[in-house]
Amino acid sequence: MTSHRHSSGGVPAADANNNNDNNNNHDDDDVNHSSSSSPPTIHWAIIGLGDVCTIKSGPAFYKSRGATLSAVMRRTPGKAREWIDENVRKGNFPKDVTENIRGFESVEGLMEWALQGGGRGGSGDDMDMDVDMAIYVATPPGAHLEVVRRIVSSIRGRREFARDDDRDSDGRRHRRRRRHPIKAVYVEKPVGRCAWETRAIIDELLSEDIAFYPAYVSRAHERTQVVRALLGKEKVCGDRVTSVEYVMKGRSFARGLEGEGGLPWRLDAARSGGGLIMDMGCHVLNRMDYLFGPIVDVYSTVSRKGASASSTMANDNNNGGDEECHPLVEDYVSASAIIGPSDWSVIPSEGATVECVWDFVPSTTTTTTTDERDEFIVRGPEGSLRMGGMGAGLPIEVLDADGNVAKVVEFDPPEHSAQPLIQAVTNELRGVEMTTTKSKEEDGGDCDDELVRSPARADDAIRTSEVLDAILNSYYGGRHDEFWTRSDTWPGLQGKVT
Rounded to whole angstroms, how far apart are CA atoms 336 and 348? Predict the structure, then answer.
């Protein structure tokens, strides 16, 4: 067995971006800039300031090349400014960065400032400002569609204001195309609570020529790119993939389950779209799609093992009481599927079987962390890969056909796990030809090429939402409507799903 630590840039950019090119978010004219001028700086704004923004993603918006963080929004009065100051105290953001960040208490307030060219300090009322802005929607998924609609509504409202104001002395309206500065919206995974919401979010943005990017950050991780190289170039599993397996057991991998003072949003279907599979399983399913192709022919068993099916717990913050209650969402999922045809898989995989288990049943007094499991296995005729499913820095084991470990590839996790993808999105929006996961502070040394374009696109976000729906349909009695408002009809709570 050999072991080595992988250096950055394991896959040439052209190969790393070999995802479905029919999934372009916007016209090439919107991202190509003249070679004689410098690429623009992307001014980012964040809507929603939960735990994901503190370390995972927030600092990446000022550390990525060509990006700066210009605004944040939290609806509770004073909380946006408090978040900025708190991150300075904790050392997450340097003071000189936060001095230029504006705080807002509403989407409309942020958008009014943005549409006036706020990203560069503009204060006029014309949308023809020479500024490029992008927005990160980091609220729980239950608010994503509403937030996006408010972004789009602000743009449309300002356009109507501009049209009414753009008349000559005879009252005739001049026909002049006005450009808004919002180039893209980057939405936290899994985008919508279900597939129809994900589609609606994307449609709203594309109707205003706003590029959409889903925050499936693991696609851009160095480890994922190395998996692509091991499978597609080194062919450590042979000339094809025959099966993909994933098991997650335990809840310690999840964030935000303690200390919220009520039902955590990740366990509330109205805010998350389901149980922890929505927040965690979506990453693994999306990565399978990226590596192998679409997941089709899904069959699943879904249940709520942590409480009896006849539990009468209300879904409103655990009734506000102190009694031991269990959320209404599922906590155990077993799913089988196959890989369908595609033109983007890194290795022939059509027909490969997929077997997944997510066991989030609450721990008992006899359960320890040693009972927990996070294992992703890819098999082929000549070998296999074994690794953890969650975590950008976990090692990859390469096994031969007899199951012996032939090689271990180790990684240093990125300081901010979302930064590789945020850098790729920023790079694509700027129209530059090369990007890197190294931060601005590390300039001066040699930088290995990374992703030229974002590997996370609209089509794969929709496919992942559709797979989640296919897995969970039986528990919720369908996910084609606002199922989170009708828990009394969920077959999973009536003992009709096992």
Answer: 19
Spatial distance between the Cα atoms of 476 and 489, rounded to a whole number of angstroms: 8
Contact by Cβ (8 Å): 88, 98: yes
Rounded Cα–Cα distance for residues 35 and 164 (Å): 37
Q: Reading across the β-sheet that carries 332-339, which strands appear in turn? A: 2-5, 405-410, 396-400, 383-387, 373-380, 243-249, 353-359, 332-339, 295-303
Task: Please give the Cα distance from 141 to 118 (Å, whole number).
Answer: 27
**SS3 call for 201:** helix
Question: pTM score, two decimals?
Answer: 0.85
Express each pLDDT in 411-424 by its tens digit: 988 889 999 999 99
C-alpha 290/C-alpha 11 separation (Å) is: 15
Residues 6+ apart with CB under 8 A from 122: 116, 129, 131
The kind and range of the H/E element at 283 are helix 282-292
From CA 482, how far away is CA 47, in angstroms rounded? 23
| 466-498 per-position pLDDT tens digit | 999 999 999 999 999 999 999 999 999 987 765
- Contact criterion met (CB below 8 Å) for 466 and 449: no
Structure tokens at 132: 């490029």
Q: How far apart are CA 385 and CA 292, in angstroms?
A: 14
C-alpha 390/C-alpha 323 separation (Å) is 32
